[in-house]
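The protein record reproduced below.
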Amino acid sequence: MIRLRFVLPIVLTLAVVAYVGLSLVVYDGLSRIGSVCDDNRANRPDHFGCVTDCDEWQDFDFEAYSMPTYEEVHFPSRDGLQLSGWYIATDPEAATIIVVHGYQVCKYHHHPLAQAGALYRAGFNVLLFDQRDCGDSQTEDGRSAYGSEEYLDALGAFDFLRSRGFADASIGMHGSSLGGAITLTAFAQEPGLKTIFLDSPLTDGRAQFTQYTGLPDALFPGVEWAARIVSGDTLLRHNPLDAIKRAGGRRLAVVHGTDDEIVRPSHTERLLQVAAQHDVKIEAWRPKGVGHVGALAVHPQEYERRMAEFFIPEDPTGP
């Protein structure tokens, strides 16, 4: 009994040290921006292809989605960080769509470039940009904040288009994967943003941790603690589903493949459940057999048609 009194505190101390250490290691691995963007740096709007994440894109006609002329632009995030982007103009009277990229990628990746190309083909102006710590934008700490800060970058892009004379009704936003969560948060925070289109969106950050890593949910509080200690980030500061509660008659659409193993379809199912509870209509498309952000690759004509019909503003007003 005496021995147990001495051993138990030691065991508990070792368990706490192990938990803290593992939390720091996991957070570091998940948050640190990797090399995917650098791997894709040869891509440009006028010439791009698939370098990484190519499973469903092997037969995609990238050349048909090229954008021959583009402008390099720079603008501040809403918290002052400097962001880099590409602006592709088609018609000054047309709407402009902001493309918000996902986790660990940037504007050089074929996902946002192909999405931009589809919008360009449909006659829209397009703005792609690198979120903080990605691509050519300002480095804050070299880590993903899981959308808790990056939504300010999406709103910085929105403000940039406003500064160019676009009316709110002529600005839309397209977000994929983690970019979907960022877009939802931006939508919740900015009532002037009238339309958003989501592709394979992440809507539950805590559930995604376990689904993506395979680690137990009990570790997530430790990862949250590590984010606060290392980067000063509060990972779940914003709930993407608040966008539904604040929709106020604004328009949303979502596409999510049934075979997505990166961000499971349950994220979109939850989005639609909350929308039904709040009488918010969402245009939903769940193509069978399609993986993560793969609907454009597998069903390009249908994807383009749905985006074009969704983003045509009721009263378009250009700059």
